[in-house]
From TrEMBL:
This is Uncharacterized protein. It comes from the Archaea. The chain crosses the membrane at residues 21-39, 45-68, 101-124. Keywords: Membrane, Transmembrane, Transmembrane helix. The keyword Transmembrane applies.
Amino acid sequence: MRPEVGQTVTLAHAKRMAVGYSVLFLAALAIGAALWVSGAEGLALVVWLFGNGFTAFMGVLTVTWDVFEYLVPEDAGNTRTGRAEGRELRPGIGLSRDTRVALRVMLVLLALTAVATLAFSYALGLL
């Protein structure tokens, strides 16, 4: 969270979010299984693909963001210039903490997308 708001992300919050998204994921699995058993295979596949896919994506996004927000240290703000101290791209221009967190989250999501694509391609016999 932004330091000017005075909120911080704790590891316990990230764990609660992980548990919450896991419960939603399992609920979508159970709903899909109930639909499959009741004979609505097409609807069950829709619930599994979109319900579980969306829940997994949002869960990974949210939990990864919270973990990186917890792990990336706060930069000490420079009161004279109004910018954070630390690495700069050039004098006077640097990456904010939110940008550093977002780049790390994006790399995790890209890696998971690549792994999932390879796994599904292998499972479908495309590789």
